[in-house]
Amino acid sequence: MAGSVKAFGWAAGDPSGLLSPFDFSRRPTGDRDVQFKVLYCGICHSDLHAVKNDWGFSTYPMVPGHEVVGVVTEVGSKVQKFRVGDKVGVGCLVDSCRKCDQCANNLENYCPKPVSVYNTVLPDGTTTYGGYSDIMVADEDFVIRWSENLPMDKGAPLLCAGITIYSSLRYYGLDEPGLHIGVVGLGGLGHVAVKFIKAFGSKVTVISTSVGKKKEALESLSADAFVVSSYPAEMQAAAGSLDGIIDTVSAHHPIEPLLSLLKPHGKLIILGVPKKPLELPVFSLIMARRTVAGSMVGGLKETQEMIDFAAKHNILPDVEMISMDYVNTAMERLEKADVKYRFVIDVGRTLKKGE
């Protein structure tokens, strides 16, 4: 690519998912582009799915990472929102068609032609690469201004986990104070959900298959109640008590027991992406006018709103900081759910050539 910028990161070369050092090129900083030095990048469960081609549309070599934060090193001549030295972030998207109804309504994430931060081939034939790398170049419209009082290292996963939770709560009206919301699964998404729901002023019941997470949920995360989903007595006691449920589980699981926990007109919002389709128990829906719905990350305006809200309410994911050369071990541990609760790569200090 003429005038391209040399970049370095770690990439997966095939569906084994193993990552290794990788030299590649970024586009030069255009008139409306922001280039920044990557300092931290979160590891999302969808990165694991992507590198292993679990969803069937992965392209290689692939540099994952869509929870990317850093400091601006260069801006294009027409950039108005940012300047060198600003703290910024990039999430799942780096472009969209900008013409459809979704884009017109600040819902670029639902554009029929979204451009993901990685694993997407652009119209000009070039490939997008993610944040497991030293630098990032993105259009200023898809760059988030990072709040000064929000730590970048712990905050990085907010760019996916945070906005996925925030957007689902806001869109489905589960952000009102005084509600009682259930959270299924106490992992990377689930623990962030507890924090946002509490900040919105609602009660939280954590629903999990693991008895061992009860203390963490109630004491560390300040959940109001904990229900073991495999204990019929506990599920029966909680029946009909919840206004809504945020289901973060990406493994295959039955949803009928969850529906029984909802009040009439309650909403079950599914955020996890199981490999196999879930069964839909229609009778439970019809008899209590319940809703089963889905949601994903938000648009850029809402993502900025979420970052500002998180900064105001001191909402930060619980993270384990790792070095770049630990990433394959981290992926193995993530597959076993062996992390509390998100990995974040210290890219700025540990990404080195020659590894």
TrEMBL record:
Keywords tagged on the record: Metal-binding, NADP, Oxidoreductase, Zinc
Lineage of origin: Eukaryota, Viridiplantae, Streptophyta, Embryophyta, Tracheophyta
Identification of the protein by name: 8-hydroxygeraniol dehydrogenase
Entry annotated with the keyword Hydrolase: no
Signal peptide: none
PROSITE patterns found in the cross-reference section: ADH_ZINC (PS00059)
InterPro entries membership: ADH-like_C (IPR013149), ADH-like_N (IPR013154), ADH_Zn_CS (IPR002328), CAD-like (IPR047109), ER (IPR020843), GroES-like_sf (IPR011032), NAD(P)-bd_dom_sf (IPR036291)
Gene3D superfamilies documented for this protein: Medium-chain alcohol dehydrogenases, catalytic domain, NAD(P)-binding Rossmann-like Domain
Domain Enoyl reductase (ER): 17-345
Tree of life domain: Eukaryota
UniProt cofactor(s): Zn(2+)
Protein family membership: Belongs to the zinc-containing alcohol dehydrogenase family.
Pfam family, one: ADH_zinc_N
Single Gene Ontology MF annotation: oxidoreductase activity, acting on the CH-OH group of donors, NAD or NADP as acceptor
